[in-house]
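Sample 3 of the quickstart, ligand heme C:
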Amino acid sequence: MAGVFEPSANLIAKAALLVFLEVLLAGLGWWFFAPRTDYASAVGWVLDQPVPFSHEHHVSGLGLDCRFCHTSVELSATAGMPATETCMTCHSQIWTSAKLLEPVRASFARHQPIVWNRVNALPDYVYFNHSIHIAKGVGCQSCHGNVGKMALTEKAQTFEMQFCVNCHRDPGPNLRPKEALFDTDWHRTAATPPPDALMAQYHIGGRGLTDCSICHR
Ligand code: HEC
Ligand code: HEC
Ligand code: HEC
Ligand code: HEC
Ligand code: HEC
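Result:
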């Protein structure tokens, strides 16, 4: 019994307390600072997906349009994810025994959709709508980067409030002609209509686009 109160035990108890405090401090530090780093918001990081789907191959390589798979992007708030049937229009003919595509075939056979991990997400208290952005001349690239060059889909923006508000304050320079909306490798050229002309063409203006109630309803 007496051993418990020997100096060495005291030392161990002190050391244990110190380790505990250090872990606690490190934990608190992570909690305070981590959410502000690109590590936590995962810009440029890729997620594990059930199938290693490549936009680079399907978009840049095969020339498929975004709307072939994200069918509701012009029509509704969400872009939508492709049904397995969409993949099978090709993969019932090509790469039919590829191991990589086993989850696609299983999904098709069992009539169960593939569950993709979400790359981009906003908190519930933010209202967002894809269709209005496409209708008003904002291309996918402005928010999702050069998807056509991504072997695995990565997040291009953290979607902090500042990112949205910066464009809402002055959308003109970010607008593009209709034919460039789905081109993820587009740049302004001398032939591109100036920002004011695009603002007029898309009838933008006269609304307080930075009003809190636009995005928080
Ligand atoms: C052949 C079908 C197909 C085409 C064409 C396609 N996508 Fe995708 N897209 C997918 C699939 C499958 C996923 C889910 C896997 C992933 O995240 O890579 C996805 C995911 C995404 C995501 C991430 C969604 C999330 O979880 O937040 C974005 C952004 C995206 N696509 C944009 C585009 C853009 C922009 C285009 C056109 C340039 C395009 N896609 C064309 C099939 C397609
Ligand atoms: C228009 C036809 C077509 C559609 C639709 C299509 N694919 Fe493909 N896919 C191909 C071709 C062709 C290849 C071979 C590409 C290569 O090697 O360059 C391929 C290759 C792949 C590969 C192997 C890895 C790679 O990218 O080379 C995976 C995984 C894949 N597709 C998944 C999917 C999924 C998931 C869908 C549905 C969301 C889909 N594909 C829709 C034609 C298609
Ligand atoms: C103004 C910015 C912006 C533009 C432009 C934009 N997106 Fe998105 N996208 C987002 C945000 C933000 C999310 C996450 C939405 C959420 O969590 O509710 C998202 C999510 C997605 C998703 C995941 C599924 C969904 O609908 O939530 C896909 C797929 C996608 N976008 C494809 C596209 C395609 C294709 C285009 C171009 C036709 C496009 N996006 C244009 C901001 C944008
Ligand atoms: C590159 C420019 C750009 C970016 C980035 C952008 N927006 Fe927009 N947003 C616009 C334009 C242009 C309009 C249309 C304005 C109009 O109709 O006059 C718009 C309209 C909206 C609307 C109004 C929808 C409606 O039905 O009234 C909402 C909500 C919105 N954006 C939310 C967001 C959110 C949230 C983000 C960030 C995740 C974002 N936007 C990022 C350019 C942008
Ligand atoms: C164009 C869209 C947009 C407008 C306009 C906007 N917000 Fe936000 N707001 C967002 C987005 C997106 C987030 C989520 C940020 C994140 O996830 O980090 C956000 C987050 C917030 C948060 C949570 C804390 C934070 O900063 O992340 C508060 C509080 C907030 N907004 C208040 C406001 C107020 C007050 C206004 C008006 C002065 C306003 N917002 C206008 C898009 C907007």
